[in-house]
Amino acid sequence: MAKKYKNKINKIRSFALALIFIGFVIMYGAIFFRENQILVLIFMTLGLLCIIGSTVVYGWIGLLSTRAVQVVCPNCNRHTKVLGRVDMCMYCNEPLTLDPSLEGKDFDESYNRGKK
Ligand SMILES: [Zn+2]
Prior knowledge:
It is a single chain. This protein is of the alpha+beta class. The protein has one domain. The chain is built from two helices and four strands; from the N terminus they run ααββββ. A hairpin with a 6-residue loop joins strand 1 and strand 2. Helix 1 packs antiparallel against helix 2 (37-67). It starts with 7 loop residues before the first helix and ends in a 19-residue tail after the last strand. Bound molecules: zinc ion (ZN). Zinc ion binds at residues 73, 75-76, 78, 80, 89, 91-92, 94. Zinc ion binds next to loops.
């Protein structure tokens, strides 16, 4: 129920970072199977795919960033990027909206404000 919302761009970025990490771990794992060339090849390919995937995700973030609207967060006064109609502040997770009709509505049910 208390699902935690995060800034979309930040979320995708941490996913891309995790992919790089997983890719390197998988490639490192290949060392333990160096006796079996086929396994090494599979691990190396999987690791490489993760890293390539991460590069693609990073490129996608770049594309999304150009479409995101830069706003000043009313809560922490820092510049953050809003993607779509509603998004969270990158720094303080304050819910932000570009649509005045959604002001204070969309996140109230699921966003845990009482945490402060
Ligand atoms: Zn903020």
